């Protein structure tokens, strides 16, 4: 079992819909959670980052973390065609222990239909 | 403020050749790391560094070397290129987890490498 599981999609929704993207993880040592957006042939772009369980909102984006269930989500409200991209969840270990780097899900390909 | 700069953007190598992928950041980030991205596999960590002179292996380190002599630069060396190393390579940098509240990594635009 991979440490981080993410449905690769594609996920196709109409413009204006609310999009829900999810990841599950197995390593309880992950303490920091991020969502990246990646357009075709570009580098990943950081969208949201969270530490504690709960919700964090930034404009049309809401990140949700449930550490007890090892489950994270990204919600996109009022989706736009420009939101069409691959969305990657990423996780980082706690600051103790010296290990670092990100562990990624495989990414979900999102298509917003005009 | 250029962020994370990777060179070259594209490269074709012959099997057995060696090369260095360059990565530089101008954000005074302590941490840096290298990833490869392959279809169906997602991004996987190759090597990382938590400061100048300190490096460690990630998930897929075989065939790659790194060093970190300055805070700004973190080159990735392919010792003897193999077709299995055909991939897109990304470099990324971050503040240390104890220094600031922004703990996301900033990524470069990538190097597309083909080994024939």
Please describe what this structure looks like.
The complex is a heterodimer of chains A (114) and B (116). Chain A has strands at 4-5, 11-14, 19-25, 30-38, 45-50, 54-58, 61-66, 71-76, 85-93, 102-104, 108-113. Chain A has 114 residues and is an all-beta fold. In chain A, a hairpin with a 6-residue loop joins strand 4 and strand 5. By secondary structure, chain B is an all-beta fold. In chain B, the strands form 2 sheets. In chain B, strands 2, 4, 5, 6, 9, 10 and 11 form a 7-stranded mixed beta sheet that branches. In chain B, strands 1-3-8-7 form a 4-stranded antiparallel beta sheet, with no helix packed on it. Chain B is globular and about 45 Å long. The model of chain B has no long low-confidence stretch (mean pLDDT 94).
Number of helices, where a helix is a run of at least 4 consecutive DSSP H or I residues of chain A: 0
Mean of all residue-level pLDDT scores of chain B: 94
Largest sheet of chain A: 6 strands, mixed
Query: Runs of chain B with pLDDT <50, length 5+?
Result: none
Biggest interface pair, residues each?
A-B, 27 and 28 residues
Global shape of chain B: globular
Q: In angstroms, what separates the terminal alpha carbons of chain B?
A: 36 Å
- Number of helices, where a helix is a run of at least 4 consecutive DSSP H or I residues of chain B: 0
**What is the global morphology of chain A?**
globular
- Assembly state (oligomeric): heterodimer
Mean pLDDT of chain A comes to 93
Tell me the strand percentage band of chain A.
over 45%
Beta strands of chain A, count: 11
What order do the SSEs of chain B take from the amino end to the carboxyl end, as H and E?
A: EEEEEEEEEEE
Q: SS-based structural class of chain A? A: mainly beta
Overall structural class of chain B, as computed from helix and strand content, comes to: mainly beta
Helical proportion of chain A, percent range: under 10%
């Amino acid at each position: 079992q991979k440490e981080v599981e993410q449905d690769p999609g594609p996920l196709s929704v109409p413009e204006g819909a609310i999009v829900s993207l999810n990841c599950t993880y197995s390593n309880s040592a992950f303490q920091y959670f991020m969502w990246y957006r990646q357009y075709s042939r570009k580098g990943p772009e950081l969208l949201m980052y969270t530490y504690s369980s709960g919700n964090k909102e930034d404009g049309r984006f809401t990140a949700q973390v449930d550490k007890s269930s090892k489950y994270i989500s990204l919600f996109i409200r009022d989706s736009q065609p420009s939101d069409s991209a691959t969305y990657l969840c990423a996780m980082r270990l706690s600051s103790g222990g010296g290990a670092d780097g990100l562990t990624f899900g495989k990414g979900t390909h999102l298509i917003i239909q005009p | 403020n250029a962020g994370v700069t990777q060179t070259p953007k594209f490269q074709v190598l012959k099997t057995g050749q060696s090369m260095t992928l360059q990565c530089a950041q101008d954000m005074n980030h302590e941490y840096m790391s290298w990833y490869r991205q392959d279809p169906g596999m997602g991004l996987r960590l190759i090597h990382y560094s938590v400061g100048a002179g300190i490096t460690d292996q990630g998930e897929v380190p075989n065939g790659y070397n790194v060093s970190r002599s300055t805070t700004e630069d973190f080159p990735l060396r392919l010792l003897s290129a193999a077709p299995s190393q055909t991939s897109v390579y990304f470099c990324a940098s971050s503040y240390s987890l104890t220094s600031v509240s922004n703990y996301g990594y900033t990524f470069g635009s990538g190097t597309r490498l083909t080994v024939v």
